[in-house]
Amino acid sequence: MNATQEKLKVQLEQAIVAAFGADFAGVDPILVSASNPKFGDYQANVALSLSKKKGLQPRAIADAIALKLDVSEICEPPEIAGPGFINLKLKTAYLEAQLNAIQADPRLGVPAAKTPKREIVDFSSPNIAKEMHVGHLRSTIIGDSIARILEFQGHDVLRLNHVGDWGTQFGMLIAYLREVYPDALTTANALDIGDLVSFYRKAKQRFDADAVFQETARQEVVRLQAGAEDTLHAWKLLCEQSRREFQVIYELLDIKLTERGESFYNPLLSGVVEDLEKSGLLVENQGAKCVFLEGFTNREGEPLPLIVQKSDGGYNYATTDLASLCYRIQQDEAKRIIYVTDAGQGNHFAQVFQVARKVGWIPDDVELVHVPFGLVLGEDGKKFKTRSGDTVRLRDLLDEAISRAYADLKTRLQEEERQETEEFINEVARVVGISAVKYADLSQNRTSNYIFSYDKMLDFKGNTAPYMLYAYARIQGISRKGDINFKELGNNAVLLEHETELALAKYLLQLDEVISSVEQDLLPNRLCEYLYELSKKFNQFYDRNQGVQVLEAQEPQRTSRLILCDLTARTLKLGLSLLGIQVLERM
Ligand code: ARG
Question: What does pTM read for this prediction?
Answer without folding.
Answer: 0.94
